[in-house]
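Weekly modeling sync, notes
Attendees: S.R. (lead), two postdocs, one rotation student

Agenda item 3: backlog of single-chain predictions. S.R. asked that every request posted to the team notebook include the full sequence so nobody has to chase files. The rotation student volunteered to paste the first one in as an example of the format we agreed on. Action items at the bottom.

Example entry:
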Amino acid sequence: MKTICHALFALSALLIASCSKQTSDIIEWSTNGVTGVRMPLHVTFVENVQVEESAMQDAISITPAVGFDAYLSGMRMIRIVPKSPLQYDTQYKVAIDAAKLTGRQHKGIAEFRFATPKLRFTYNDNWLQQNDEMTGYVLIGEIVSSDYAEGSYMERNLKISGTAGTDVKWTHSEDGLTHQYTVGNIVPRGDEGYTLTLDFNYDEKQTLRVEVPRKDEYAVIDHSVNPEPLAIVVTFSEPIRQNQDLKNLIRFDTKFRTLVDKNRLYIYPEARPTGAHSVTIGRDVVSKNGQKLKESYSFTATLPSRTPSIRFTGKGSILPSSNDMSLLFEAVNYQKARVRVRKIFANNLLQFFQQNYYDDQYYSSMDYVSRVVRDTTIDLGARSSTRLDQGNTYSLDLSRLITDSRKSMYLLEIRGVDPLTPVDNEYDYDYYFGDYRTYKERSKVVVQSDIGLICKSSGSDQYVVYTTDLVRPPQRGLQSQGLRPAEPGAGRSEHRFRRAGRAEDEGRALHRHGRSRRGRHLREGRTGHSPVAE
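Predicted structure, as returned to the notebook:
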């Protein structure tokens, strides 16, 4: 009997534990895969979920623990913003108590998981040059991190040895990806040169050694290759005289031009050669003080192919029918381009703008406001073509991709296919149609319309909206503040919506000159939270 009681107790405990861990299916979409350590998290709920905004903070938990703020974005999305950067290379779990979040309309725990990337660094070219007082040197360099890196972390983990008394100044970009350092007070010695050592003690350690010449010595101290724009960079210990015939003092097996910047000599090939090339700097290259080199300096420079890249060009976002609906993009070292077209349905436009800006860096919840209407691959040229290694501009005929005659809004995404040189696919995700770091330049929201709108504020509570016909020529005598009037807009009403879906409108129609004046009267507007269907 005692054994049976123990078994029943264990079973009861198991049932209680399983009930306490009941899962909930209230999540429709959430952040997943790999996301940056400072990126906000997003979670969208199914349509029948009513979120209690005051309960969000208590209903959400993150493991490993991190402080955060939660904001309601639109009607069904919560935006979770960590108060401090997340840990690198870490798996996170977000748990949402459905009962707390919805006032017990739903039960169970909804979960989603994501990861943060490992922090990696790229060490760009450094430059040893004389200081302004011509009494010593400064070393200028740059580090690019794969994700946000705090400036204090970058600074405290740099150790310098080889000489005493140096000082370091840092400049960090706002996004925490680019870190420029300047090492000052590098004093040359009178008897001999020495090696300055920089130890970057990050998770991926790196050591940089720079040869500092002895005082008043004129010599070549370094050479390197700058990939974009392609140049061979030769660094001297002293500033170089500007007005000398450098083309006849340099041996290089292709046509080139030169540029002198203090103690740096830039050699720009006129063509785009690749591979190993022999370069000789003649001993008669003179310093600013009239010194010559003791001997010629020869080396081999390996010129790389251009890094594969692809992006949309131009700032236009309205596609009138008069330009055959063409859009330009630029590609380098890709044999093909893949284009994906998403149609943002008219009844979902308000939901789209509740969660996104028109020219955003990333777009949220696109699966719920749009549908992929075309996904195609375009040949850019034969793989053996030397033209693909150049920055070529192509015209994309959207009339073949957008066949719906009704005017609408579309999200266009492009990515390169079949690169001619190796590329790093570590940051590729399907949601971003490739590398998330380049998504902004590879995506574009466009409006298919023959009418343009310009909204101007009078500085008070009034706005003036002008329409202009982008296709038909202006009619004589119908000019309005330099804008062409749009007869098709005459008699049409227009509404202005707030973020929560309320429309600010007087109900006034556009008059025949394409101009409407409005105040701040409010009426209810539809938010367009319907499924992606026409």
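Discussion: group reviewed the output briefly. The two ends are 66 Å apart (CA to CA).
Action items: rotation student to repeat for the remaining queue; S.R. to check formatting next week.
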